[in-house]
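Appendix B.2, paired examples.
Example (i):
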Amino acid sequence: MNGTEGTRWNTILFAVVAGYIAALHVGKLPPAMPIVRAELGLSLVVGGWLVSAFAVTGLALGMVAGSVADTIGHRRLTLIGLGALAVGSFAGSLAETGPSLLASRLVEGLGFLAVAVAVAAPSMVAHAAHAGDRALALGVWSTNVPAGVALMIVVSPLLLGGSGWRGLWQVTALVTVIWLVVLAMGTRRDVDKVHHRARDASLARNVRLTVSTFGTWLLALCFGLFTFQWLAVMVWLPTFLIEERGTGSAAAAVMTAVVVAVNVPGNLIAGWLLHRRFPRWLLMAGAAAAMGFAAVGIFDPGLSDGTRYALCLAFSAFGGMPPTALRAAVPSFAPTAAQMGTTNGLLVQGTNLGNVAGPPALAAVVTAAGNWESAVGLMTAAAVAMTILSLGVGAIKHRQRKAAGEYRR
């Protein structure tokens, strides 16, 4: 957007709520999984694919979706994404077999990719925000997944008890349709000015320009290393609490939900720090180092359970900072404003590479060694690699400022 224009906070609010609603579709499955598997007779393997459908979709189609957003407009793709989420969720509520439910989850995955995983709606936020407010706005946006998932984990038992998993799917679809209408009406006067220039650019050109920019690869790899660590801990924390520490299943679910939820303050603090012109690379490197140190303590059997749980909270809180910093970096690292969505799409692919690889890698290491302490090496290696790449991001930004004649910030 033009630097002389003010921040369109109403547009940002519409996009942020769309992200929260998209995250509900992620959070609805884990609490319902035992009921879904029992009713449809699903194996653990099929259940695993239901969980992985969103990550696989993002990994395969991130840049494609981003380039589509750059071509047809971020607002338009956000609306299409909400529609796909609603259609997929309603179709899933009618599923009678595992394959049909998986097909509906893939449709939802396409919608989630369009809306929530840093492709269409985050680009709406970036274009709607004045440059001075962009980091703060993206910090608020970044709360969507942890907050939406945590909210659904808390609310879904009430709906599951009253109307079953099919009712939960239908209610989620209805809420999504309502917000689709609200967003369409509330942002109908918004014009994605940059996209009038972008419509002449082909998907191949957008992708070529994005992948030929070294800085975009650093951002994507940083995001992948972050999700590799964070999701691995979040996925296996309930198992660790139940099998290793003897925690009850209900208590483990609540404790895990709290750990996921404290990711939100990290998002907001990072946005505030970036708004106050705190160096982006230092925020990323510091958060990566803090996550590494916390992981060492989490898997240290010599520490008390209270201390280890506090370190889980710290791990997740510091883990809220990298997503905000990385998304805020996209406008600076995209080849041009017309490739902002495509660059976001590359970050999506990095994110989902970490999502797909992290949990099984942690499981493989722990299984091979026969103890949870062995996870320390894997987690610290990822943290060190992310710290080094963050320094690379800082070096590129320094060169950009030097070339532009900037000596402060």
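Example (ii):
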Amino acid sequence: MSETSFLIPQEEYLKAGVHIGTKYKNAFMQPYIYKIRPDGLAVLDVKKINEALDRAADFLAQYAPEDILVVCRRENGWKPASLFGKLTGAKVITGRYPPGMLTNPNLDIFTEPKVVVVCDPWPDRNAVRDAQRMGIPVVAFVDTNNTPQGISVVIPANNKGRKSLGVLFYVLAKEYLKRRGLLQSEEGLQYSLEDFTTD
């Protein structure tokens, strides 16, 4: 893949550590692992991360913003997930996922999204489980220690680091807007990559 094929410059991915996995390597994630560092950390293939973000953006672009629900229990993802929501118009739940939100029509908070995006399939497992029960596809950032079962669109990535999550949500927001025909150039974006990655 040439440098021009990257959705953002490759060094931005590397700088944010989107490719740094964990010491635990789930067998399902093996195809995305580029190498194992001497300290035991798995390193994800940056090209595959970029390709997955590209696929995920295509997939999400099929849905109107009001049909997308983003769930993020991990605190490092709260700011970028919220900015994703502000830019795209998607609904965002940060912190604890309210039980029954997708499954109990009697609740005031009941919502019927057509697709759910989760920051990490483990802390966000209740949202993933409810989405599966309701037949709603799930897009997820999946690290080397995660099991991607039940995930419709896997984005292999460091889903724990603040900068990494910032880059991932920024790229997804930018590409979603471009593919929906709502963004002509990156200069038109209300928030920058820096807004997504700094406190």
